[in-house]
Amino acid sequence: MPADVRDRDALLAPYDVDGVVDEPELRSVAELARHVCDVPYAVVNLISEHFQHQVAAVGIAPAVCAREDSMCSVSITTSEPVVVPDAREDPRFADNPFVTGRLADVRFYAAGQLRTASGAVLGTLCVFDGVRRDLAPAQRRGLDLLAGQAVAALELRRAGRELATTVRELEEARAELARSNSDLAAFAGQVSHDLRNPLAGVTGFLELLADRPAVAADGTAHGHVERALAGAARMRDLVDDLLAYARVGGGLRPERVDLAVLLDDVLDDLAPTGALDGFDVRGDPLPVVRGDAVQLRAVLQNVVTNALRFARPDRRLLLRLRAQARDERWLIEIADNGRGIPTAQREEAFTLLRQVHDHGTVPGGSGIGLATCRRIVAAHGGTIGIGDGVDGGIAVWFTLPAA
Questions:
Q1: Of the residues 133, 165, 197, which one is the last residue of a structural domain?
Q2: Please, what is the average pLDDT of the chain?
Q3: CB 3.0-4.6 Å disulfide test: which of 129, 163, 201, 249 passes with 108?
Q4: What's the pLDDT tens digit per position in 360-373?
Q5: In the Cβ-directed half-sphere of 337, how many Cα atoms lie within 13 Å?
Q6: 309 Cβ neighbours under 8 A, 6+ residues apart
Q7: Is 292 helix (H, G, I), strand (E, B) or coil?
């Protein structure tokens, strides 16, 4: 068997042909072929390993027959146009059951190959009659052109099925992601509940112990209690961060959000701690975007807090802001002149519970902040990354939809 007709079931699989298929678009092509060739019958056939599938027919009802009985199984193997005035006189078809009268009494038969762009022959567009006749050159040319239109209709059908499959898979993935996020939020909530109760007890007893005069008088004991209280506070913050991370994207409330106002709120919250002493902000005003104000505030707070935490003690901390409109999105960059992150470790910084270096001037940190930022930005349809900052620092950039 020629190479272009081997494993025909695999060749036709993308076109989903199984049994009788009557496609309206292909029936229109067959109707035109009947009209152009001035015959009573026209059929679009797809030839599989063992069967001929009439996927559209005019003048007869579409059916399926064995491949060995098919006249078109011969036509898909020849490189020459097939036009047979009287099939009884052609040795290729004289004994065919569609010619001998066992299945039909075909006399005139002509076929154009359904050849794809890759050169594979799917089947034929054939016309036939029960009387002897012939085709004019213009009719022969018209049959070939219509065979090309039949291939185009088949390819459109295949593409439509693939698109439907892709949409279904995306819907299933979205549903699974929603379920996973729901499970993650429930798990984090349970862990938070289970850890908060014993942690509250530990903190309460430590506070009682710290208030005892004997402990206060003993500097060593008092120091140990203070360290234990600080450790309990860090554990509480870690639990809160995990819970916040799990809830990201679960219920966005999109609105117009002025990032400049959010940044001012973040800086106002940090001011009483003294962390902003010697702090400088320069650059572009931040834009108005569309998103969830609460979650976007968390992005700005995490980025600014990281800049403070990893500021260099030998220089004044600088934040440089940049905002650039790109189509219907904003590219926002917040750069600092802090300790920086090696290029090879920048992607690692977004990994949950992963810290790429020790703490700087601000204590705390759980390795959750930038992971949370990535989840928030992704939930808004954007991307986030780390680039070069000012004088060895880093620049955190992210994209958000414009308002």
A1: 165
A2: 84
A3: 129
A4: 444 445 567 788 88
A5: 15
A6: 359, 360, 361, 362, 364, 365
A7: coil
What's the distance, CA 351 to chain centroid? 21
Total structural domains in the chain?
2
CB-based contacts of 78, cutoff 8 Å, min separation 6: none
| 257-287 per-residue burial string, b: 16 or more CB within 10 A, e: under 16 | bebeebbeebbeebeeeebbeebeeeeeebb
Residue bearing tokens 């505030």 = 297
pTM: 0.48
The size of the chain, in residues, is 403
Kindly report, residue by residue over 199-251, the tens digit of the pLDDT: 666 777 777 777 777 766 677 776 767 767 766 766 676 566 656 656 665 56
Question: What's the CATH code of the domain at 354?
Answer: 3.30.565.10
Phi, psi of 184 (to 5 degrees): -65, -45
Select from 165, 188, 213 the last residue of a domain. 165
Token pair listed for 164: 């439907």
Q: Please give the backbone phi and psi of residue 19, each rounded to the nearest 5 degrees, phi first.
A: 85, -155
Query: In this structure, are strands 394-401 and 329-336 parallel, antiparallel, or unpaired?
Result: antiparallel
- pLDDT attached to residue 363: 45
What would the pLDDT profile of 36-66 be if each residue is shown by its tens digit? 999 999 999 999 989 999 999 999 998 999 9
**SS3 state of residue 206:** helix
Q: Say which DSSP state 131 is in.
A: S
CA 99 to chain centre: 53
What is the pLDDT confidence band of residue 150, given thresholds at 50, 70 and 90?
very high
**Residue 307 is part of which domain span?**
252-403
Sign of the four-CA dihedral 7, 10, 15, 19? positive
Per-residue CA distances from 247 to 113, 251, 322 (Å): 58, 8, 29
Contact, 67 vs 115, CB < 8 A? no
